[in-house]
Amino acid sequence: MTYEYPPYIVGEVSYKVRKLVKELTKIGVDIVLIHPSDIEGVWYDGRVEIWTVTKSLKTDLHIVTLSWSLSMDLVRKISEVVNHYRGAIDIIHCHEWISAISGVLTSLAFNKPLVISVYSVERMRGDLVNLISMSINGIEKLCFSHALYLLTDNDTTYSNLMNMREALSKRTRINLVKNAKDVLKIYRRTLWRWKRRKY
Amino acid sequence: MEVEETKVLMVSWEYPPRIVGGLSRHVHHLSMELEKKGVEITILTLGFPGVEEEVKRGKLMIIRENEEIAFPNPEFISYVYQFNLHMFRKLVEKRVDLRDYDIIHAHDWLVAPLAIELKHMLRKPLITTFHSTEYGRRRGIHTDFQRHIHELEWYLAYESWKVIVCSWYMRNELLTTLSLPADKIYVIPNGVHPIDLSKPLDYWRVRRRYALDWEKIVLFVGRMAYEKGVHVLLNAARILLSRRWDVKFLIVGEGPMRSYLINMSRQYGIYNKVYFPGFVDDNELSEIYRISDIAVFPSLYEPFGIVVLEAMSAKLPVIVSDVGGFSEIVQSGVNGIKVPPGDPVSLANAIDYFLNNREEARRLGERGYRDVLEKYTWSKIAEKTLEVYENTIREYERTGWKSMI
Fold first, then answer.
1. Do residues A2 and A33 make contact, with C-beta atoms less than 8 angstroms apart?
2. CATH at residue B185
3. How many folded domains does chain B comprise?
4. Do both B63 and B164 map to the same domain?
5. How many separate helices (H) and strands (E) can be counted in chain A?
6. Taking a C-beta distance cutoff of 8 angstroms, is the pair B382, B147 a contact?
7. Do the beta carbons of residue B116 and residue B126 sit within 8 Å?
8. pLDDT tens digits, residue range A30-64?
9. Which positions in chain A have a beta carbon within 8 angstroms of at least one beta carbon in chain B?
10. ipTM score assigned to the predicted complex
11. pTM of the entire predicted model
């Protein structure tokens, strides 16, 4: 799940996600990617299966209500995908905190492991003083605590995540990943840990 | 499917002991009666620290999320989204088998995110009871904050298999403001637990707390808010007190306009004839109903108006404004009197009529009492709700929209 994917571009994340999923499909991972769009449908970007979802609520007060209201639509679409594949989805992988809320909900509902890719955290972007920034920071901590793995591709985010570690659950592990092969290794470890979990 | 096998997941943001408004009591009484009829119910709700997280009574289970605020929120809507997520986490934590439920029943927009998500995750039909709408509460949509709530209500109504409202007035409101198709809406009134008239009462001792022996007590019960029309009642009181002096107005309840209304009665020079006891508990309130002579409810907006049923169950003659749910409960000259909303002269005349015609007032009070027992008991409301459940399950079973997991 991602908030952005070409041609829906907000920042660099859309390109990073596209590069990653294309490389993952090349090394044998089946990917179903969900992202918000202006129309609902299914299309293919190479071997990547893409399901788009529209946003039902049109008035948002700020980024926090946007992320919460979007999560209702993402959950709706993920449920559709999971049912379409009769539950045969192994891992839920979210990119950034905006899509992570729906990741937490569906990981709990469908009993699937959650992996979150983090490209930056609120303590790097915001001041953590105004309520919106504090709220984003709270959502990040809450979602990150549900994940088995937090993946990042840059050293700054990695060190910030390591600083947040005290606030996260003990099961959450933080990894620096540079390419699709690193991510594949994490997927394997995720499945291995998920089979042996005691929670 | 037999009634005994029906399993319902009811979601509400308030349930006793957490009481914010009338919703809490509604969910409590409805669930109790449904359970008596054999329905298995889980209520997922919010509590507060110290309240039992999980309670099981027969076929009724209550699951409470008690620690709902994990981080600060910019405004109330974000807080609502946050506690919805926490409520779902609590449900999963309790290891309830979610696939067992036949129906998800949500109450109001405050649980909309969770209700919509549950519907899609479980692929089970969603029924929603709308107790009011943002459009009705605010007399229109004026800000982005209100619009977001309005859109959430629209989304919840859109995703609901069936929608329950408490009055035909509310049905029209949903038809026009949420663009709902008419065949999706069921009108089921609210219920009431009648005032126990057989309970011993030291009539004069209670009465002397509020009025002199020769004064007739005109009662209002409700929130001190603009839409309840207490300011109209004070205007009517001024008119009536210029004609006769043997009346005491007893205005029970709390709310944002209370001090304004007390000042208003001072300015009108009727302060010694209007008594504002503030919030009273259920016991005291039932005593007040029994020692009063007339009950008056001059609301300007009223989706249902459960207070009028309480007054009628105490055999009190009632005067209501001709709005919303009141218009449907009261028939003028049959079980009460209706007056135009916001019209203090008509209201004063109606009170005067009842005070001058004691026998007629008693007759209307008796008829109101019979109407409550015939139409508005929680047992009857639960029966009608059960019919909605059964219709929905029948329709759902004929569709291919089922969980494939």
1. yes
2. 3.40.50.2000
3. 2
4. yes
5. 7, 7
6. no
7. yes
8. 999 999 999 999 999 999 999 999 999 999 999 99
9. 56-62, 64-65, 68-69, 71-72, 75-76, 79-80, 82-84, 86-87, 101, 104-106, 108-110, 131-132, 134-135, 137-139, 141-142
10. 0.96
11. 0.90
